[in-house]
Write a structure and sequence with these properties.
269 residues, single chain, 2-enoyl-CoA Hydratase, Chain A, domain 1, globular, alpha/beta
Length: 269
């Protein structure tokens, strides 16, 4: 295993799996501009052609996944003219470029929610293609508690996962959604005992990482963009994604394994 330490972020590369860990336990991994810089450095490593990474497992250090934006630096304070304050500027310049990179990764992403996922931390959790949670975890649209609106893409992601009525309820009331209720609502995929979460998440990450990465990347892209397209447009998108997948070495191996009645050995190419 290779470990890289960046600003408030640790990256552990174990063969084809990259474990992306938010690492600021003093504030339960609340996001700062320093952490966003650490994410950028980590993604630079993950996206190198020779990195060998074929799946990302994203989690938080300690007792929390991520408790939202770190406000301790004075964000939102009243020490300057509110008329000149722009609470959305950091979204445009720092958060959004990172979120776009995550969305466009050509490999599956698992988020392992090991504790509170609040505010933009909940947005981060929802970026997972598979969202796993510890039983003690909860999700919270915390923005209304400080007089802001949901961000980090949550107004797009949340209604698509749980429906408009529940998305509005969570955002307008700002109530905690426990992990097991989140599973019932369809927000997440699986819930595990706290002690089992990371072991199960790691197993699942390695299973995906040893799969046909080209087709898995195309699958996540097709679903991520499906709500922006008409039915006819999606048919066209599937046609061209199938062209890409069908030209991969993994497709050839998959067919050969099927015909030979043996397990496929995918290489992610």
């Amino acid at each position: 295993m290779t470990t890289h330490e960046f600003n408030r972020v640790r990256l552990e590369i174990d063969g084809p799996v990259a474990k992306l860990v938010m690492n600021h336990v003093e504030v339960m991994n609340a996001v700062s501009l320093e952490m966003l810089g650490g994410f950028k450095s980590a993604l630079d490593v993950i996206e190198k052609p020779d990195s060998g990474v074929r799946c990302v497992l994203w989690t938080g250090e300690g007792r929390g996944f991520c408790t939202g934006a770190n406000l301790s630096g004075g964000a939102g304070s009243n020490d300057f003219d509110p008329e000149s304050r722009d609470a959305g500027l950091a979204l445009e310049t720092s958060y959004h470029p990172f979120l776009r990179r995550i969305r466009n990764l050509k490999m599956p992403i698992i988020t392992a929610v090991n504790g509170p996922a609040a505010g933009v931390g909940m947005s981060f959790a929802m970026m997972g293609d598979l969202i796993l949670a510890a039983k003690s975890a909860f999700f919270l649209q915390a923005f209304r508690r400080i007089g802001l609106v949901p961000d980090g893409g949550s107004t797009w992601l949340l209604p698509r996962l749980v429906g408009l009525a529940r998305a509005k309820e969570l955002s307008l009331l700002g109530e905690r959604l426990p992990a097991e209720k989140a599973l019932e609502w369809g927000l997440i995929n699986r819930v595990y005992d706290d002690a089992e979460l990371m072991g199960e998440a790691t197993k699942l990450a390695h299973d995906l990482a040893n799969g046909p990465t080209v087709s898995l990347g195309q699958i996540r892209s097709l679903f991520n963009r499906s709500f922006d397209r008409s039915y006819e447009e999606q048919l066209d998108a599937e046609r061209w994604a199938q062209l890409v997948a069908g030209r991969s070495a993994d497709f050839s191996e998959g067919v050969a394994a099927f015909l030979g009645k043996r397990p496929a050995e995918f290489k992610g190419k």
